[in-house]
Amino acid sequence: MTGVRWRVLPSPVGPLLLGAQGPHLRRIAFTDEEPTGLAGPDAGSLEEAVLAETAHQLGEYFAGERERFELPLAPRGTDVQRRVWWALADLGYGTTVSYGTLAARVGGSPRSVGAALGANPIVIVLPCHRVVGADGGLVGFGGGVARKETLLALEGSALL
After folding, report:
1. Which residues pair with 25 in a beta bridge?
2. Where in the numbering of this chain does the Methylguanine DNA methyltransferase ribonuclease-like domain appear (predicted)?
3. φ, ψ of residue 115 in degrees (nearest 5)
């Protein structure tokens, strides 16, 4: 992404790659290795402030002190993807929903929901880890099922 500034944040689910552009958070992604060649934020920049606040709120989340994020999100995607991502933002902490139920809420199919979740650019904050299979199984998570299970356990999900 052109113009995006980056920061790597250690977390209980492995390093997270945070990306901001101007006053908006554009990306949170799992990363298994330290990325190289990414531009960090300039001191005093809007990106630095967004990345610092994102790191702060994620720290509170992982400490069990935050259940809802208040960040300036600006994910890029299709209309269908954005509908799914904003529906994720409304899912309550520690709750889960099936692909089919989420599809009914946004007017799509379970397959289109799965595709949108796979393209989710802001993991954890847009909590795709709260979407489960029809039988409640922990399926279909780009960060891996172990990370999904860790996040749901952190939230005290009744599913686990």
Report:
1. 20, 73
2. 4-75
3. -65, -40
Alpha carbon 42 to its chain centroid, in Å, reads: 24
Single pTM value for the model: 0.93
Q: What are the C-alpha distances in Å from 152 to residues 34, 58, 77, 93, 124?
A: 25, 15, 26, 9, 10
Q: Mind listing the pLDDT tens digit of every residue in the chain (160 residues)?
A: 678 999 999 999 999 999 999 999 999 999 987 777 788 999 899 999 999 999 999 999 999 999 999 999 999 999 999 999 999 999 999 999 999 999 999 998 999 999 999 999 999 999 999 999 988 888 878 888 999 999 999 999 866 5
CB-based contacts of 101, cutoff 8 Å, min separation 6: none
Q: Which of 103, 125, 128, 138 is catalytic?
A: 128
Q: Which two three-digit tokens encode residue 103?
A: 């599809």
